[in-house]
Structure formats: C-alpha cells, structure tokens
Amino acid sequence: ELEDIGASVSASVGRESLTINAAVQAQSFTTLIDIIGDSVSNLAIKDYEVKDLLHFVGEDVAVNGASGAAALSDAIHAAAYYDSLTLGLPLYGDISGATRDAAASLAQDAFVGSNITVVGTGVDHDQFSQGVGDKFAGVASGRFGRQASEYVGGEARVSRGGSTANIAVALNTAGQSAAAVSVLATLLGSATRSRTHSIGGRTGGRATQILAAHDALGSVSGFANTYSDGGLRSEEHTSELQSPRAS
User: Fold this and answer.
1) Most CB atoms closer than 10 Å: which of 3, 55, 92, 247?
2) What stretch of H or E contains 8?
C-alpha cells in the first residue's frame, strides 16, 4: 500500500525512542496516516517476520556495533548510568532476546496513547489533527511504566583487537543549557592527523592543539549527547486521551 502511493518510510531506534518517518505527496496524506495508524494500533507480529528480520538485525549489530564509535558510546552509557533499564542499555547488544513474544510484549506496553507523539509538516493542520484523531483512535490509552535514568559515573573497558585504542571521557551536564553544551563541544572541535602528519579538522579548536602536542594521537573530537529523558520517567499514569498528542 505504501508503494502504491509512492511513500518513503523508515524506522530508527535510539536510547529514548522508536521513530517512524514517512514522506509522501500531500494529496496522499489520508492514505498514509491510515496505514501508519493501523500499523501502530493493529500491529500483527508473525513468527516468520521476526525470524526473517533477525538476520538483518544481526548484520546491523555485527557491522555497526563493531565500530569503535559504537563501542565507545555503549561503554560511556554503561559507565555513566550503570543499569540495564534506562540509558545504560546498549544500542548494539545480544539479539538472542529478540523473539516474537518479546517484540509483541514491547509493542503492547509501549504503543499506548500517552507514550506516542505524532508530528506532521507540509499538511493542513485541521486535516492532520482529524487524521490523527480518526486513525489513532484504536490505540489504547494504557499505562506505561517509566523509570528515570540516573547519572552515577564510572569506568568501562571493552577488549578489542588491533593496535589502536579509542578513549572517551564524558562529563554530566544534566540541568545545563543544551546550547551551552553544544558550544563547549564545538570549542573542543575536531582534528585528524593525516599520513603526512599534517593536522586538520572541521572546526579545529582545542582539538588541534591537543593533537599537535601529542604525536601518538591520531584524532581528537568533541561530542555532546543531550536527552530529554521523556520516555524514561519514573511516574506512571493513565492517559485520558484516546489518541496521541498531535503537533
């Protein structure tokens, strides 16, 4: 059905949310919201689908999870939050628990009105609000338990082959302005040493000075991760709305 209307659809998962992105010509919006709404409110998860997809999920974990950046990110979160329920969870972990029953249980718990936000652009607001109200009406209001993440700090090491070591240092900036955090990361900048030993980077900054002073370093870069913690709060509540928020 999506192919029939020329829709482009993708899904991505992060530490706080699962996101479904869909783009289509404006005149086909009603059909698109109907399909997306049905996929959330009337989701059928079949054994053969999960078995087929596990192959691709496994490849994704093997390729992306094996990268130095992914290993660093997972290690940072494991050390900083030190739990297996909130932000301490790895993005690329063991897929043995990805069964049909586990996926169905997650969908049943998470696909509730109080836990869904629908955002639309390039479509008439009244048409959008009406479409969301109609097509997501079947989503249960439900109760979704949430546990707040807690930054505790610590150290994590990952054994890896090869002669290159990747090291990251993370500092807790909770409660600070996200813009200020981004400014600090930009001030640190990014610099890479080339085969000719020249140094360059997107923004230079402090990273260039660090690299110039330490011959053993191949690259230095700043990073900033900010979280709303919106999907991880500890309080539980039952939504009185029969459809998700629309904005």
Assistant:
1) 92
2) strand 8-13
pTM: 0.71
**Structure tokens of 145?**
């338990």
Which stretches within 65-166 are classed as H helix? 68-81, 100-110, 125-135
The C-alpha atoms of residue 32 and residue 220 are separated, in whole angstroms, by 44
Give yes or no for a contact between 220 and 191, defined as CB atoms under 8 angstroms apart.
yes
* Distances, alpha carbon 17 to alpha carbons 14, 20, 86, 165, in Å: 5, 10, 11, 31
Close Cβ partners of 215 (under 8 Å, ≥ 6 residues apart): none
CB neighbour class for 203 (10 Å; exposed up to 12, middle 13-18, buried from 19): middle
Strand partners, 238: 143
The answer to whether the CB of 166 falls within 8 A of the CB of 72 is yes
55 φ, ψ to 5°? -60, -45
pLDDT in tens, 78-123: 999 887 778 888 888 778 778 888 888 888 888 888 888 899 999 9
- Answer for the pair 50, 28: CB distance below 8 angstroms, yes or no: no
The vertex-36 CA angle with 11 and 97, nearest 5°, equals: 45
Note the pLDDT tens digit of each residue in 142-181: 766 667 788 888 998 888 777 888 888 998 888 888 889 8
